[in-house]
Structures are given as structure tokens and as C-alpha cells.
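Hey,

Quick one before I head out. I ran the complex with flavin mononucleotide overnight. Inputs first:
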Amino acid sequence: METLEAIKTWRSSRKFLDKPVEEEKLEAILEAVRRAPSWANMQCWKLVVVEDGETRQKLADLAFVEAYFGPIGYKSNPAQKGIAQAPVVIVLCADPAKSGNLWEQQYYMTDAGIASQNLMLATHAQGLGTVFVGVFEEDKIRSLLGIPREIRIVGLFPVGYPVDQGETRPRKALGEIVYSGKWGESF
Ligand SMILES: Cc1cc2nc3c(=O)[nH]c(=O)nc-3n(C[C@H](O)[C@H](O)[C@H](O)COP(=O)(O)O)c2cc1C
């Protein structure tokens, strides 16, 4: 699939068919992450590929939050329960010490975000589906997978053949997000 077409037709998948992911497709996804740009080319990411069914179920459970009453309220999308069906879950981690930290900007999140987008587009371009799951019990997943304390877990990506993708989700119009020349000037 051509890049712009993949971007245009992207949508998150939270339900998966009982169908394995071919090894070469998984490798192409991991290779797309490997090719991502990063702060000073330090490539702060590490990935854990989980295929074992019991561990995938535990990950799905640890990523389902009934309600979180922090500074902003949060509740996991109920559709997210379907992620345990995905035959592969990629756990994307990053080492903050291996990226920039300047003027209160932590660039490991930027690096990991770019790597995530490569992962998502490479998945979608091959007829597979995934979703960025960004809320989860980080410490419990660290223990489950033996991830060291200093490493941050940025996202879980269940990967599989999606059930009925449906329409793409709406986005703001360009006029709402783009200014011309100066902040506030309509484009
Ligand atoms: C940083 C980040 C965290 C996200 N976390 C979750 C999540 O925990 N659970 C979930 O179901 N979707 C999650 N999503 C997916 C978004 O809800 C989804 O991308 C958005 O609603 C737009 O829908 P679309 O991806 O289908 O276009 C996350 C997306 C991003 C970028």
C-alpha cells in the first residue's frame, strides 16, 4: 500500500480474527520500527514480542482500566477487551537515558511515538490491524515481562487480522488546526 493511502485509510483495530500473523509480516513491522528516526540516532527503543496466549491475556487484563481518577479522568475503551484475541502483542519500550532531555522535553516519547507510527502504518499496509494502547499498569507489566525499572513502557500493540474495520474515525478540519504565517491567522 502506498504511504499516503495507508495514512488516509488507517483506523485502530480492537477485534481480531483467529488467524496467525505470518512471520515475514511481523518481521516487516519490526523492521519498520528499526528504520524510524530518533534523537541523535540513539534508537532508544526496545520491543518485546509476545506470542504466548496466557501472557497476551495477562497483558490485555493489565491494560484494561475500569476508571482512573487522576488529574484527568480515564476509562479504557470497552472495545479494548478484544485485544487479547490478537495473536501477537508488541510491547514498545524506551530507555529515557538513551534519548534527549532538553528544556523539559523528554524526547524518548517523541522517538517512541515516531517508532509507533511506523509500526502502525507497516501493520496496516500489510492488511493487518493494531491499536496504540497507551494506558496500562506499567509496573505489573514490567514484572510480567522482566523489563528493568529504568525502562519505560510506552505502548502495547496487539497485532492481527482485524474484524470488520468500519469507517475511519473523524478528524478536525484543517482550518481548525492550521494557521497561516502567524498563530490565529486562518489558513
Ligand atoms: C498515545 C495514544 C494512546 C492510546 N491509548 C489507547 C488505549 O489505551 N486504548 C484504546 O483503545 N485506544 C487507544 N488509543 C487509540 C486512540 O483512541 C485512537 O487512535 C483515536 O481514537 C483515533 O482513532 P483511529 O486510530 O481509529 O483513527 C491511543 C492512541 C494514542 C496515539
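The beta strands are 45-50, 68-69, 73-74, 88-94, 101-102, 105-106, 152-159.

Talk tomorrow,
K.
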